[in-house]
Amino acid sequence: MTNLPKDELISRAQSNVKSGRLDEAIADYRVALALDPLDTWLHMQLGHLYYRKADLDSAINCYLSAAQIHTQDGFYSRAAAIYKVIVEIDDSRADIKDTLHGIYERLGLDYISNQDMINWQAIIRQLESEDKLIEAIQETETLLKQDPDHLEVLIKLTGLYFQVGDRERGATCFRRAVYQMMKRWRNAKTNELLVKLDEANPDNHVPLVELIGKLGVRLKSIKRFINDYFPNRDPWENERQMGTRDVESFRREYIGKVNMYLRIGLTPGDAFRKIKEELAEREKEYYRFLRKHLPESRLQGLH
Questions:
Q1: What's 152's domain CATH number?
Q2: What is the pTM of this model?
């Protein structure tokens, strides 16, 4: 058992992943997890690595732990997203499907069952054969309301939008699908989506592979900005003695907000702008706090 702190273990694990040393990375993540058993991010990283090694039982166990912690903390949407990944890995898990039903009821959504998918696919095939694409879009949009993150339905709706020439909604749907795939590390699905988009929109001049690459690069730049802002540019850091939250919790909060904005279809650029607006308001709140609580003599020179 190493005596390294958690952040150093994570850093070493990430280096091992980049070098292809998955077993060493798993070992480091497990030690880090022993230090903080409620860290859902660590559970998910372990699950991803086990999935890459085709150890599906271990992957499911890690994902399940993360989902259960999110459920206990009241983050039901996050838990549902993880439970759906488990069902995609092992469709025989009736217990997970029952849990998903319960979470979806709590969220006011309807879980899309296998039978729902079979019925929808049959309807869409019939409508497409009759060249009723608008009706096909309406059916697909209705199904997507039950589960806004359902990847297969998002992919199909993206293609339908492009087929009828609705590029704006097609692009929004595309970004939502790409976000889901990036979140799940599903490269095969990414390739499938690219093929479907090219088939649906052959006159598209935007190189889609390049677009996905740019999305990934832009997301990294946003995360770098947030990681630098806390603590280097956060004015509230000056009041750390007041018992404000730790730096890492702020980073996770704002990166979580970026993910939320992407989930609803915003571009990375729009998500970045919204984050900057929120941080600007955070800075205004700090100066309002100073004006209220500090004497005038201390306020001079702060502007």
A1: 1.25.40.10
A2: 0.49
